[in-house]
Amino acid sequence: MKPIALLCIFLAFQFSGFAGDGDKIPSTTLKTLDGKKINAKDFSNNGKPFIINFWATWCTPCKAELNNINEVYSEWQNETGVKIITISIDDQRSSAKVAPYVKKQGWTYEVYLDENQDFKRNMNVNNPPQTFLVDGQGRIVWSHTGYAEGEEAQLIEQVRKLLKGEALSH
Q1: Tens of pLDDT, residues 52-105
Q2: For a Cys-Cys bond, which of 27, 71, 113, 115 suits 41, CB 3.0-4.6 Å?
Q3: Contact at 8 Å (CB) between 140 and 22?
């Protein structure tokens, strides 16, 4: 294959989909737990930051992270106004487990279904859990993949830094 053709293929691959920090949320149709459609590009929090978290019912670290955050979520909201939006990447076979799990855990997050994993692909999520911090103007300003016990403290610290106008650490 000629070098120019390889370069074109490489550039097309590099610039497709989500590119990284500062990008807006891509237009992708998701479903609410009651089956209504919503476009991810319409996510907002009245000018305040919000968090998008990709998870699945089969992902143990995902559930641990969201359950641990749930314990302090009301405090986070009172302090910073942050909102958490969770995106289940369970496919059509397992998505019926999402609503019962959410209810059992008592989560008050916004929960959406990405059964075809279109949003996951558009955001270049490889493995859950993956978390994105979005500023009040809808720009993605920070992301993190994986979860270890206690990392929720790092997440809220990034929200605090964002609200103070400080540089976020990656």
Answers
A1: 999 999 999 999 999 999 999 999 999 999 999 999 999 999 999 999 999 999
A2: 27
A3: yes
Percentages helix, strand, coil for the chain (3-state, rounded to 5) are 40, 20, 40
pLDDT in tens, 25-44: 999 999 999 999 999 999 99
Phi first, then psi: give them for residue 96, nearest 5 degrees.
-65, -15
85 near 51, Cβ under 8 Å? Answer: yes
Cβ distance 142 to 21 under 8 Å? yes
Strands (E), the chain: 29-32, 37-39, 50-55, 83-88, 110-113, 130-134, 140-145
Q: Quote the pLDDT of residue 7.
A: 34
User: What are the structure tokens assigned to 85, written together?
Assistant: 């939006």
Is residue 120 a contact partner of residue 86, using CB atoms and an 8 Å limit? no
Q: Tokens for 80, please give them.
A: 């910073």
- Measured CA to CA, the distance from residue 162 to residue 83 in angstroms comes to 14
Question: Which residue ranges form the domains of the chain, and what is each CATH number?
Answer: 19-164 (3.40.30.10)
